[in-house]
């Protein structure tokens, strides 16, 4: 896939610090699908990004250079992870993408559709066939700053609560883009 040279000022944050309770606590980033780790899939989705930060334990490496960080305290949830990731970026982005590590069918094409849908808005998120927002989206970094809660309020905060004041486009998932790997059965089903 060719790089999108118009993506300047775009950075990505991969959320890889969850508990994976339904998968016996395994580090989801290390789980393999078709010989590649879920982390590799997530990082590849941000091929157009100037920089990628992975929020999680950093036990799995990827071919592409990324920065690994852990929120303090760890396992603070997606809001704490997203904001920790944004804070770890070396450059101030214009647009920041966020993606859960367990969504291997989200690709660079998906992220490009989200970026296009976010034009003139505060951001865009992928929604599944039932209209539920998925943990795959892009946000205007300046607008994210406006709704950013204090450090203590970030931990355990629901992402929908953080995003509620923002004008977000909804982008319908195509194919298996909205599928996430929450259990071993989900992984088996993706393997077909």
Radius of gyration over C-alpha positions, nearest whole angstrom: 15 Å
DSSP E strands, number: 9
The largest sheet, given as strand count, sense and whether it forms a barrel, is: 7 strands, mixed
How do the strands of the widest beta sheet line up side by side? 5-4-1-6-8-7-9
Task: Tell the overall outline.
Answer: globular
Q: Figure out the total of helices.
A: 7
Helicity range: 25-40%
Uncertain residue ranges: none
Q: What portion of the residues fall into strands of 2 or more residues?
A: 15-25%
Q: Quick check: average pLDDT?
A: 88
N- to C-terminal separation? 25 Å
SS-based structural class? alpha/beta
- Note the run of SSEs as H and E: EEEHEEHEHEEHHHEH
Can you describe what's shown?
The chain has about 190 residues and is α/β, with parallel strands linked by helices. Helix content is about 30%, strand content about 20%. The chain is built from 7 helices and 9 strands. The chain has helices spanning about 40-45, 80-90, 110-120, 140-145, 150-155, 160-165, 185-190; strands at about 10-15, 30-35, 35, 50-55, 65-70, 95-100, 125, 135-140, 170. A 7-stranded mixed sheet has the order 5-4-1-6-8-7-9, sandwiched between helices. It has a two-stranded antiparallel sheet with strand order 2-3. A hairpin with a 5-residue loop joins strand 7 (about 125) and strand 8.
């Amino acid at each position: 896939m060719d790089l999108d040279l118009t993506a300047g000022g775009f950075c990505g944050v991969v959320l890889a610090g969850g508990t994976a309770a339904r998968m016996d606590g395994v580090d989801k980033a290390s789980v393999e699908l078709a010989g590649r780790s879920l982390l590799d899939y997530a990082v590849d989705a941000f091929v157009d990004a100037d920089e990628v930060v992975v929020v999680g334990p950093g036990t799995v490496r990827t071919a592409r250079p990324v920065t690994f960080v852990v929120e303090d305290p760890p396992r603070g949830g997606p809001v704490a992870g997203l904001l920790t990731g944004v804070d770890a970026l070396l450059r101030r982005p214009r647009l920041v993408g966020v993606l859960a590590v367990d969504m291997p069918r989200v690709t660079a094409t998906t992220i490009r559709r989200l970026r296009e849908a976010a034009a003139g808005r505060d951001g865009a998120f992928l929604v599944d066939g039932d209209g539920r927002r998925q943990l795959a989206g892009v946000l205007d970094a300046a607008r994210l700053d406006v709704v950013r809660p204090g450090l203590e309020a970030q931990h355990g905060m629901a992402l929908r609560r953080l995003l509620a004041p923002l004008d977000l486009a909804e982008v319908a998932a195509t194919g298996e883009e909205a599928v996430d790997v929450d259990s071993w059965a989900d992984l088996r089903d993706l393997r077909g």
